[in-house]
Amino acid sequence: MRARRLLAVATVAVGLVALSGCRAEPGVAAYVGDHRITEDAVTGVLDELKGSLPSQEPTPAGQESEAPAGPRLPARSQVVSTLVLLEVCQKLSTEKNYRPQGQVQAEQVAQQFGLPADATYSQRVAELYTCLSGVPAGQSVAPTQEELAALVAAGKEAGAIPPEVTVEQAASQLDGDQLRSALATRNNLAEAVTGYDVTVNPRYRPLEFPVLSFTGDVPAVSVPLGESGSDSVIDAR
Fold first, then answer.
1. pTM
2. Neighbouring-strand partners of residue 31
3. HEC letters along 124-140
4. What confidence score (pLDDT) does residue 55 get?
5. Closest by alpha carbon to 17, among 220, 223, 188, 186?
6. Predicted confidence band of residue 122 (pLDDT cuts 50, 70, 90)
7. What residue spans define the domains of the chain?
8. Count of helix runs (H) and strand runs (E) in the chain
């Protein structure tokens, strides 16, 4: 999401996936513990935006829009991930007594996305990044060779790294404080998501929230949580 530029923490977030078979109630988009995020709530957020913007369709998750740059409805999965992560962050902050280190205003989000400042989505995004600003990343984490290789592969696919560049050549540029901090934050938030029993409707799988992105908002480091694993570093879709 472009809102991650609003604060230093704005490159840090988490993606959330997983659905236990016993928690697949119709009409529920996601659970955070006993808290339900309903499909109706997600629809309400999008319908509110549709009523305030020129007629358009949400950009499908993982696809680039061919339309000219301008205000765009968020993908439905973006709304779900925002609502889920906000709930997780608020629970974590309450439990650990974290306090925001920066304040993101809905007006900033609105300007970033070209959306109304009084829209529920703008307000929830602002609340999310304000909350995330108070969550410590923890000790930095060095990437493994496998993670660096995956990162370079994603960068090449995104056009951010020239095809002829090797993993060894790219590593000196990629392996720095920013990447290591992102990996640490990924691990910290992934642990919190697991602890709060986050499960997501299969229709949104894999639901991921970028931790770090290449130029052009192409995710580089993400935290997908699901049966296939919870520590994936790369998602360039």
1. 0.74
2. 36, 199
3. HHHHHHHHHCCCCCCCC
4. 62
5. 223
6. very high
7. 2-222
8. 7, 5
